[in-house]
Amino acid sequence: MSRGGARPGAGRPVGSVNRRTAEVIAEAMGAGKTPLEFLLETMRDEELDHKDRAWAAEKAAPFMHPRPAPMERTVSLDLPDTSTVEGIDKALDAIIAAMGKGELSPQEGQGFITAVETRRKAIETGDLLTRIEALEATKR
Q1: At CA 96, angle to CA 95 and CA 100, rounded to 5?
Q2: CA gap 64, 43 in Å, rounded
Q3: Cα(91)–Cα(124) distance, rounded to whole angstroms?
Q4: Average pLDDT in the 61-66 region?
Q5: pLDDT grade for 91, boundaries at 50, 70 and 90
Q6: DSSP 39-52
Q7: Domain limits of the chain?
């Protein structure tokens, strides 16, 4: 028989509630309050232990003060023609310079670089296809 490690059926059942959570739920349900109302009341009760009040404040905070969603902005950047490798190189230089000046955030710069890199790969694929076709034509 092996010793130690996880055993089937050992430990707390999945989804079970600990004693403190069960007490909180029972008290809230008995008072006929919403969970948020209960948390706020617990947070304001100066007779309770500081840890319980801090716990209630932590749990209620996301409902009272939700984090604002990040706002996306439209960015305009004058880039050179990217139909050639030289143009792509100049475009990358312009993007990096704009990031250095603070005109573009790193995330915005990454978005531009991804678009230019996709364009470069398309050009490279077209050039390789042309070369392969030329090699196949000479082999026939």
Answers
A1: 120
A2: 13
A3: 16
A4: 87
A5: very high
A6: HHHHHH-TTS-HHH
A7: 19-64, 85-139
